Amino acid sequence: MFWQGPAAAVAARQVAITIDDGYCAECARAYARLAEATGIHITFNPNGCYSEIWNPLASTLKPLIEAGQVQIGNHTFNHWWLTELTDAQIIAQLEQNEEWIQQTYGITARPWWRPPYGAYDERTNELAASIGYTNVLMWNGSFGDSTVISARALLHLAREYLQPGVVMLGHANHPTVTHLFRQIAEIIGHRHLSPVTLDEMFGTSRSTGRST
């Protein structure tokens, strides 16, 4: 389980910005433009069921992925509550999303996966590991925007949680955050934080899907 960065990430003042889901087309586009325009390092964990939103972003994101600036993790295809599914359904959710990620972005998401709703148990983790998803991604900071949130509340959470070594959870689901990119960047800058991908924070590799 990976809840936060290692000691080396804290010392280097690294923060991992991880953005899940993506059922808001405006939000996903805004995040892609942000990465392209600013060079900020981000890990996206999209669901393939929103492919009509994410597929058009491939031309923007693929060069950033190839450069190591952007990473794609597996958040399952349909964002279902995995602990309520059968073994076969759990594996199918991960494999279907992996196939979509490879076809769309040309890279594996292994070994990283994030269980929808943070719902996992020993069975889900063992099944995921059996197909190469050995790194269960959790978080120790959040923008709180899986549902609609006010700008004031989101910025309060950003100020609280954007700290060295934090794995920050965000969502491309509601446009509030897209109007706060400047303020969030100022927090990151004032605290001398370095946004990194999961690969950079934890020393994993997209070429093999395994730890380096």
Show the helix and strand layout:
Blueprint: H1 7-11, E1 14-21, H2 25-38, E2 42-46, H3 51-54, H4 58-66, E3 70-72, H5 87-105, E4 112-113, H6 122-130, E5 135-136, E6 141-142, H7 151-161, E7 167-171, H8 181-190, E8 194-196, H9 198-202
Parallel strand pairs: 1-2, 1-7, 1-8, 2-3, 4-5, 6-7
Give structural notes.
42% of the residues are buried. α5 packs across α6. The chain has helices at residues 7-11, 25-38, 51-54, 58-66, 87-105, 122-130, 151-161, 181-190, 198-202, and strands spanning 14-21, 42-46, 70-72, 112-113, 135-136, 141-142, 167-171, 194-196. The chain is globular, with a radius of gyration of 16 Å. The model is unreliable at 208-212 (pLDDT under 50). The chain contains nine helices and eight strands. The strands form two sheets. Strands 1, 2, 3, 6, 7 and 8 form a six-stranded parallel beta sheet that branches. The protein has 212 residues and is α/β, with parallel strands linked by helices.
